[in-house]
Amino acid sequence: MEMPESVKIVEVGPRDGLQNESGELPVAVKVELVERLAAAGLPVVEAGSFVSPKWVPQMAGSGEVFRRLTKRPGTSYPALVPNLKGLEAAISAGVDEIAVFVSASEGFSRQNLACSRVESLARLRDVFDLAGARGMKVRGYVSCIAGCPFDGDVPPVEVEAMANDLAAMGCYEISLGDTIGVGTARQVRGIIRQVTADLPRERIAMHFHDTYGQGLANVLASLEEGIAVFDSSVAGLGGCPYAPGATGNIATEDVLYLLQGLGISTGVDLSMVAETGDWISSLLGRRTESRAGRALQAGRQAGG
Ligand code: HMG
Ligand code: MG
């Protein structure tokens, strides 16, 4: 399979990253983060979520973030919503694109959404109805594609079934998430082949976390399977509250460096993302998790 000539990066740091960071950030900083990432050329910046603040207190200010955001023409700013209540709150904050999420495993569904997989799909019907009536685009996530912190192994046919259901309900793109970062390249290829037996490659995105250091190898394997959309997080922000030791998403800077080397275009300015990664990491009181980000930072400090 030919590798794609260009790749779309979906920046999820302000949502998937910050939802798992213990450091509290003021709304103004979150707004600046989203705006800087968009200014760096990222075509999609997931800017927050409208979930229960009891479950994810870090995302409680998302309405304010969306209200204060200056949107760039041509950039998408989706918000994650779990149910109708979340969608209604998102609409009133000016959100015009959403992402919904289900799990390939039963255990994670119950932990993350407080319901079974079947119930989670049924609950989304209202969400799709309202979003459809308002002409909103809906992206879908399937979590735990390569393993579940509660159920262990997850067969690719389970991923395929959930991806097909989300596509049938109207998701324009399905992001397959290795939520706890356990998958390896051969496994990832098998999952992609299983899912693309039914769905066109163009509708599939891959979403890797880097817990076992397999993130970039999995991106390369996915590129070789013809996948051209990847989710990543500036500075590798994040983690998973239900998977002790799980790290954040693969770092946007690292993915950009890989793609540059492969001659694959993204339209994103790596140095601007890296500077944003340093800035947000220092505000969180830690070092960037991006290896490319650290290398570029060292180069700047050396006057290079
Ligand atoms: P529940 O407890 O069953 O909800 O949780 P409920 O309907 O019984 O309501 C309980 C309370 O929550 C009520 O408030 C509701 O009003 C409120 P109370 O009467 O007790 O004061 N509530 C809400 N508040 C604000 N916004 C809402 C909302 N809905 C209900 N939308 C629920 C069910 C879905 C709400 C909960 O499980 C939840 O919020 N889950 C979201 C968890 C989450 O955000 N996880 C992280 C995102 S998924 C992810 O990161 C994976 C991904 O990155 C891909 C990957 O890595 O694989 C996408
Ligand atoms: Mg994630």
Question: What this model shows, in words?
Answer:
It is a single chain. This protein is an alpha/beta fold and 304 residues long. The protein has a single domain, classed as TIM Barrel. Helix content is 43%, strand content 13%. The chain contains twelve helices and nine strands. It has helices at 13-17, 27-39, 62-68, 84-92, 106-113, 117-133, 156-169, 185-195, 215-224, 252-262, 270-283, 291-301; strands at residues 8-11, 44-45, 48-49, 79-80, 97-103, 137-143, 173-178, 204-208, 229-232. It has a nine-stranded parallel sheet with strand order 2-1-9-8-7-6-5-4-3. Helix 6 packs parallel to helix 7 (156-169). The longest helix has 17 residues, at 117-133. 52% of the residues are buried. 3-hydroxy-3-methylglutaryl-coenzyme A binds next to helix 4, helix 5 and strand 6.
Q: How much is the radius of gyration in Å?
A: 18 Å
Total helical elements: 12
Helical content stands at 40-55%
Classified in CATH, the superfamily is Aldolase class I
Largest sheet: 9 strands, parallel
**Lateral strand order in the biggest sheet:** 2-1-9-8-7-6-5-4-3
The CATH architecture: Alpha-Beta Barrel
Order of helices and strands: EHHEEHEHEHHEHEHEHEHHH
Q: What is the name of the CATH topology?
A: TIM Barrel
Q: Which secondary-structure class do the elements indicate?
A: alpha/beta
The low-confidence parts are none
Q: How many beta-strand segments?
A: 9
Q: Quick one: CATH class?
A: Alpha Beta
| Ions, cofactors and other bound molecules | 3-hydroxy-3-methylglutaryl-coenzyme A, magnesium ion
N-to-C CA distance? 38 Å
Shape: globular
- What is the mean predicted local confidence, pLDDT? 96
